[in-house]
Design brief:
Length: 80
């Protein structure tokens, strides 16, 4: 079942995401990140997930200077 809220946009274009949604998505940390995009008709927000910059894998990631690379791609780079 869909549940929603209506929120006003402030002068700076901001909205407040209800705590219930932030809690459900694990976004209670003040440094949590959201991915925000549009399909032309609606704005879509979802929890940002770190992915490998090469293959978009989501597991076995290592961070390097703010970018992520998976173990598989890292091994490929080592052999070149």
């Amino acid at each position: 079942m869909f549940s929603g809220f209506i929120r006003e946009i402030d002068e700076m274009g901001r909205i407040v995401i209800p705590k219930q949604f932030r809690k459900e998505l694990g976004l209670l940390d003040p440094h949590s990140r959201l991915e925000i995009f549009s399909d032309g008709k609606q704005i879509i927000c979802r929890k940002a997930v770190a992915v490998c910059i090469f293959c978009k894998a989501e597991n076995e990631l290592q961070e390097f200077e703010g970018k992520y690379i998976c173990r598989s791609c890292l091994e490929k780079l080592k052999t070149k």
